[in-house]
Amino acid sequence: MRSLTNLIERNRAWAEKITSREPDFFRKLSEQQAPEYFWIGCSDSRVSANEIVNLPPGEMFVHRNVANVVVHTDLNCLSATQYAVEALKVKHIIVCGHYGCGGVKAALQNQKLGLIDNWLRHVQDVMREHAALLAEIGDESDRIDKLCELNIIEQVYSVCQTTVVQSAWERGQELTVHGWIYALTDGHVQDLNIHITNQEEMSTVYRNAIAAVRQTKSSGELSRQTAR
Ligand code: CO
């Protein structure tokens, strides 16, 4: 099939459903966007940003990549962050990863997949940083889930260290960076109890979040334990 007629038809039905409820919806939205949230998530098809928090178009600015990694030399992620913070003046940045992340799994297992291995090196850096914590976990699925959590916390910390976020806080702009994890198995998002609102609390909140990961079992781990 040359053209994706089925998708175009789905698009028309979707747009009509919205305009039947709110005739001015698209016209008003075309004039401006004023989202409060900037989402940094994994590219995984099952973790679609707006949908899992049930938000309509216009409410969330989105950047996604494999394994929701924030790297200081990634112009794509940094540019999206700058636009979100400086132009749109979002109030919240949410780094949302997910359990069972293929990128995190490939990093943990040191799989050789080609070009992407270079990208996943960043997740392997997280792995090396927390090698002692991960070594305490016997089951591999549990270890992957723990690395998913640790990766989110590390990426939250990276977001906070960007010049964009640092400058926003210096200007006194209200901006909170959050870390969430999504469970593919039940569609629920869990807050990883990391909310950073300024430079001063960065280190303490980070340390507490890592300590919490060490002490608590992930929801995947708990459900596997019940199933065993
Ligand atoms: Co993923």
Core attributes:
Beta-carbonic Anhydrase, Chain A; 2 domains; five-stranded mixed β-sheet; globular; binds cobalt (II) ion
Provide a descriptive summary of the structure in words:
This protein folds into two domains: 1-31, no CATH class; 33-227, 3-Layer(aba) Sandwich (Beta-carbonic Anhydrase, Chain A). It has eleven helices and five strands, in the order ααβαβαβαααααββαα. It has helices at 5-21, 25-31, 49-52, 75-87, 102-108, 116-129, 131-135, 140-161, 163-171, 202-215, 219-227, and strands at residues 37-42, 60-65, 92-98, 176-182, 189-196. The chain has a five-stranded mixed beta sheet. A hairpin with a 6-residue loop joins strand 4 (176-182) and strand 5 (189-196). Helix 5 packs across helix 6 (116-129) and helix 8 (140-161) runs antiparallel to helix 10 (202-215). The mean pLDDT is 95. The structure holds cobalt (II) ion (CO). Cobalt (II) ion is lined by residues 42, 44, 67, 98, 101-103.
Count of the separate structural domains: 2
Tell the overall outline.
Answer: globular
Indicate the low-confidence ranges by residue numbers: none
> Architecture of the largest domain, according to CATH?
3-Layer(aba) Sandwich
- Helix and strand composition category: alpha/beta
Largest sheet, in brief, is: 5 strands, mixed
How far apart lie the N and C ends? Answer: 45 Å
Number of helices: 11
CATH class category of the largest domain:
Alpha Beta
How much of the sequence lies in strands comes to 5-15%
**Order of strands, widest sheet:** 2-1-3-4-5
CATH topology of the largest domain: Beta-carbonic Anhydrase, Chain A
The CATH superfamily of the largest domain appears as Carbonic anhydrase
Tell me the radius of gyration. 19 Å
